[in-house]
Amino acid sequence: MTGWKSGRQILGAVVVVGLLAGCNRGDRADRDLEGMTAPQIFARGEAQLADDKPEQAITSFSEVERRFPYTQYAKRSLILQAYAYHQAKEYEDARAAAQRFLDFYPADQDAAYAQYLLALSYYDQIDEVGRDQGLTFQALQELRKVIENYPDSPYARQAVLQFDVAFDQLAAKEMEIGRFYLKSRNYTAAVNRFRAVVEQYQTTSHTPEALERLVEAYLGLGLTAEAQTAGAILGYNYRSSPFYDDAYRLLTGRGLDPKVTGDNWLASIYRQTIRGEWL
């Protein structure tokens, strides 16, 4: 019992010391900024950003917003807070600051930049292909808002490029899982993944491989019509691709030709996208 009390007393002392230290830092910040005007504190934050000290800049810009609310300096400090948080890789805080700016100043000239920062806070967190892609979906949603809501802004073009990269990453994830299923000879599951790439991510760089993998998977299932049709679409759109060469060898090795045959989902894609028959 005595040991427990001693441990609790030590823990209480540590908490008190931590609180006092936090208060001391706050007191120092107050003393440092005592008597300074909004322009002076704002300039201090800009200088700290220029010196690659985003954490310090966050404090300065926060103080401008706290001490001088409803001023132009407070508004400008909020957008720079979002930027400083992003530079410090504090992405959730960056999103929160950017969203506050959009909520308070939706028609401001910096609203486009706030939206772009919000999107960038997700985009810069996109993990490798093998990880969960939830952040990629969030990045796509926010980048789309930049593109659609601020098409004439200087950030729209960059958002388009980053949207394509994020979109490509989603397709890469489907391909990775599809290859795993194909290697495991789980052909039906593999088809579902490669079909998603062909139908949903057809503008990405992964479509030729997805079509070739569909040839492999459908041959594994004994569905020759689907395999031939996938080969035909691959040959029509990507004849110079090495994936077409692989698909052609697979088909001809079974005495089959890459041609549209049967009435399946791939035949519908061929009719719609190549022959223009939408009805």
Can you characterise this structure?
- Helix content is 76%, strand content 0%.
- Helix 8 runs antiparallel to helix 9.
- The model is unreliable at 1-26 (pLDDT under 50).
- The chain starts with a helix and ends in a 5-residue tail after the last helix.
- The protein is elongated and about 85 Å long.
- The longest helix has 32 residues, at 2-33.
- It has helices spanning 2-33, 38-50, 54-67, 72-87, 91-104, 111-123, 134-149, 156-183, 187-200, 207-221, 224-238, 242-252, 265-274.
- It is mostly helical.
- It has two domains: 28-169, Tetratricopeptide repeat domain (Serine Threonine Protein Phosphatase 5, Tetratricopeptide repeat); 185-274, no CATH class.
- The protein has 13 helices and no strands.
Helix share bin: over 70%
Structure class: mainly alpha
The biggest beta sheet, please?
none
* Overall CATH architecture of the largest domain: Alpha Horseshoe
**Outline type:** elongated
What is the multimeric organization of the chains shown?
A: single chain
Number of domains: 2
Overall mean pLDDT: 87
Distance between the termini: 82 Å
Enter the CATH topology name of the largest domain. Serine Threonine Protein Phosphatase 5, Tetratricopeptide repeat
The amount of beta strand, in percent, is under 5%
Number of helices: 13
What layout of secondary structure does this protein have?
Elements: H1 2-33, H2 38-50, H3 54-67, H4 72-87, H5 91-104, H6 111-123, H7 134-149, H8 156-183, H9 187-200, H10 207-221, H11 224-238, H12 242-252, H13 265-274
